[in-house]
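Collaborator request log, item 7. Partner lab (contact: R.S.) asked for a structural prediction of Adenine DNA glycosylase to inform their binding assays.
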Amino acid sequence: MECLLQACLLLVRRPKTGLLAGLWEFPSASLESDNPSLKACRAAIDKYLKSILGIRANSESELVIERKLVGAYKHVFSHIHMHMKIEWMRIHVDKKDPHWDTNAKTLNGTEEKWVPINGLHDVGLTSGVKKVYEKFLEFRGRKTITKLRGKRKRID
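Returned to partner:
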């Protein structure tokens, strides 16, 4: 999700235990199918965003300014194969809303933060999340990242 005024991306922290514990990721929702429809993907992420931020992100929402499918990516992590459909959503964020805080808790207690698009190099991201970010930059018409977090940086 991208906020309109500041060009930021929303990140949420993974649970403190389990796979990739405590790392940051883009909001995501798990689905049973390896190839779900776009409608099913949107319904799942809309439900997730409602649970963490209390916002409606569906087509009837006044917050959603633009919403597009970025692409797909298959990430293999050990014995787990993740099939990701990547969607970008531009939303209007009211700075008076407590969820605009750069380090806030969501409604369900998950940590969240809005990070400037160019500020992701300061955040601990998994290789899968970095790939999603690269797809997003390609979608936005920017050149692919060559270095991130000490090893990579964006080239304009």
